[in-house]
Design goal:
mainly alpha, 6 helices, 0% strand
Length: 194
């Protein structure tokens, strides 16, 4: 996997965490230290989930090597397509308030961890696909985790300033990025791209 593909993948996997962080930042108005702690939670979880998915995919790879590139393509298109469609719906929704107030019980650390896990499910699915391609999974997982930390921390601070308006745009770009990576894997494994 090329450095450019890893960069696009890391950004794409971080996009939904960034969007969720922006929404949380709009309602909780965190300090820089609180935003960094929140970003760290998102980053750690987003580092671990692709490793878990990769281990699962590796266990299954011996049975599906003939069609692994189609599975990788399909999973990336499903995850990326869902991200893009969800973002498109939020972008076209009317009368969405800029600063939706989050109830106090949804502002604590447990809620943050649950949000981080919810946004990292796609990273586990992508981790499964990475078992089918030649990739250093530790490097990729660390790139995803570091990017998520930076984007989630920035998202928390940005959400504090601008509300939730731009989260769907970030998620849309991330979804399209995953779909592009899936297409690249398919084209490379079918011999259309070198």
């Amino acid at each position: 996997m090329s450095p450019l593909s890893i960069t696009v993948l890391a950004f794409s996997m971080s996009a939904d965490a960034c969007a969720a962080a922006m929404a949380r930042g709009a309602s909780t108005k965190p300090s820089l230290l609180q935003a960094a702690k929140g970003g760290l939670v998102f980053g750690i979880i987003e580092t671990v989930t692709p490793l878990l998915g990769w281990a699962l995919g590796l266990a299954a790879s011996a049975y599906i090597t003939a069609v692994d590139h189609w599975i990788a393509f399909g999973l990336l298109w499903l995850v990326g397509g869902k991200m893009a469609v969800d973002a498109g719906r939020r972008l076209t929704a009317h009368n969405v308030p800029d600063n939706t107030e989050v109830p106090q019980e949804q502002r604590g650390m447990l809620a943050l961890i649950l949000t981080a896990f919810a946004t990292s499910i796609d990273a586990a699915a992508v981790g499964v696909t990475l078992a089918f391609v030649d990739v250093n999974i530790v490097s990729v997982a660390l790139a995803i985790g570091l990017t998520t930390f930076v984007l989630a921390t920035g998202g928390l601070m940005l959400g504090r300033l601008v509300g939730v308006k731009f989260g769907p745009v970030v998620e849309l770009i991330g979804g399209l990025g995953l779909m592009a990576i899936g297409t690249g894997i398919l084209l490379e494994h079918t011999g259309i791209l070198p």
